[in-house]
């Protein structure tokens, strides 16, 4: 197959980790007889520096022409510490999600047998965890009207959801549940928020279309607690944008490192694959960041965007072997030897 992939490395460790994923994808292409064309494009602080805009039109053009987008990370401390900055790297990510219509963010959480003891949580709690968050990605408080009033002394961010936005996300959740253990949890705060009541009402109305799926409704605060107490009790969870952002960071702790968890952002037409972690500025250029979340995101890309499950499996298998053999970066290494980002990438390529 000929595959055109837009490569948006972004900021911080983005370039280093995507470089490893590119090496692995190229090795897969060689092994399975595909031809990948990588089309690099600017995003984030890197794009602000170059053209004054975090998601330039040229980048958007490249993304819509590609078969899929592989994305690194976005964000720079120079903006984090300046609340008055008018243009921010993160705006680029949000604009990209909105313009590409990527309304569903699929974030799996699973454990790796060889890393169970890397998790700060007890083995017996997390063993066998295999859950997926479907986070709504183009609505809610992230995209509602925001601003200041009363001379800047009062600030507001509106949270808005339409029935249609909830329906299309929930539909993906039900469909995913049907391919797994047919359990769906709708995470909301319906005891307080009107948007959450719309979520609950909409999902309840959909239950009749998926009679085999057992649906539970839980408040986000309770889920935050139960997620680390009994992660095994969850399978597919659907939730709004901000709750999903927070809970998926929390869930990554189960696997032992944020550097391991991949994600896919999908819409009707386009799809983008990215690690759930951020740009990790402290590690930039040091060749120490964990590239596996990005490599595993590339596996999701082969499986979902290109419908090539064997290629995806080959990537996951070699990642599992690298972990089992201790070819790990410092976030996982503890007392044992820590490998460099590029060394992990090289090992994966050699062992594919
Ligand atoms: C994520 C990130 C982004 C988000 C930031 C960088 C805007 O934290 O992908 O989870 O909040 O969605
Ligand atoms: Mn986040």
Give your account of this protein's structure.
By secondary structure, this protein is of the alpha/beta class. It folds into two domains: 1-102 and 260-352, 3-Layer(aba) Sandwich (Isopropylmalate Dehydrogenase); 120-255, Isopropylmalate Dehydrogenase (3-Layer(aba) Sandwich). Helix content is 44%, strand content 20%. It has helices at 14-32, 44-51, 57-65, 77-80, 89-99, 123-126, 163-179, 194-206, 220-229, 241-255, 292-305, 309-324, 330-333, 341-351; strands spanning 2-10, 35-40, 68-73, 104-110, 130-136, 146-149, 154-157, 183-188, 214-219, 236-239, 262-266, 271-275. The strands form two sheets. A ten-stranded mixed β-sheet has the order 2-1-3-12-11-4-5-10-8-9, sandwiched between helices. It is globular, with a radius of gyration of 20 Å.
User: Looking at the structure, what is the overall shape?
Assistant: globular
What's the number of helices? 14
Number of domains: 2
**What is the string of helix and strand elements?**
EHEHHEHHEHEEEHEHEHEHEEHHHH
User: What is the CATH topology classification name of the largest domain?
Assistant: Isopropylmalate Dehydrogenase
What binds here, in terms of ligands, is: 3-isopropylmalic acid, manganese (II) ion
**Percent of residues in helical segments?**
40-55%
How large, in whole angstroms, is the Cα Rg? 20 Å
Terminal residue distance: 19 Å
CATH class of the largest domain: Alpha Beta
């Amino acid at each position: 197959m000929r595959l055109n992939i837009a490569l948006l490395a972004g900021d911080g460790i983005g370039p280093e980790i995507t470089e490893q994923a590119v090496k692995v994808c190229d090795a897969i292409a060689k092994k399975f007889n595909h031809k990948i064309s990588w089309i690099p494009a600017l995003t984030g602080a890197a794009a602000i520096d170059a053209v004054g805009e975090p998601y330039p039109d040229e980048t958007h053009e490249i993304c819509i022409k590609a078969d899929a987008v592989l994305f690194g990370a976005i964000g720079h401390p120079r903006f984090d510490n300046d609340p008055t900055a008018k243009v921010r790297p993160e705006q680029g990510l949000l604009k990209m999600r909105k313009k590409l219509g990527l309304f569903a963010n699929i974030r799996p959480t699973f454990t790796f047998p060889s890393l169970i003891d890397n998790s700060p949580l007890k083995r017996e709690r997390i063993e066998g965890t295999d859950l997926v968050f479907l986070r709504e990605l183009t609505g809610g408080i992230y995209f509602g009207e925001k601003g200041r009033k009363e001379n800047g002394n009062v600030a507001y961010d509106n949270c808005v959801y339409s029935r249609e936005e909830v329906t299309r996300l929930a539909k993906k959740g039900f469909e995913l549940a049907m391919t797994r253990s047919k359990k769906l949890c709708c995470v909301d705060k319906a005891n307080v928020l009107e948007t959450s009541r719309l979520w609950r009402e909409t999902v309840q109305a959909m239950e009749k279309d998926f009679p085999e799926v057992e649906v539970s409704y839980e408040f986000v605060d309770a889920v935050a607690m139960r997620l680390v107490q009994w992660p095994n009790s969850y399978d597919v969870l659907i939730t709004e944008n901000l709750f999903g952002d927070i809970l998926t960071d929390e869930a990554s702790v189960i696997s032992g490192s944020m550097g391991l968890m991949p994600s896919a952002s999908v819409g009707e037409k386009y799809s983008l694959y990215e690690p759930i972690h951020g740009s990790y500025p402290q590690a930039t250029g040091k060749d120490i960041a964990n590239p596996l979340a990005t490599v595993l995101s590339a596996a999701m890309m082969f499986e979902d965007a290109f419908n090539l499950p064997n290629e995806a499996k080959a990537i996951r298998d070699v990642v599992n072997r690298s972990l089992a053999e201790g070819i790990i970066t410092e976030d996982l290494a503890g007392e044992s030897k820590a490998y460099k980002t590029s060394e992990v990438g090289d090992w994966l390529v050699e062992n594919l």
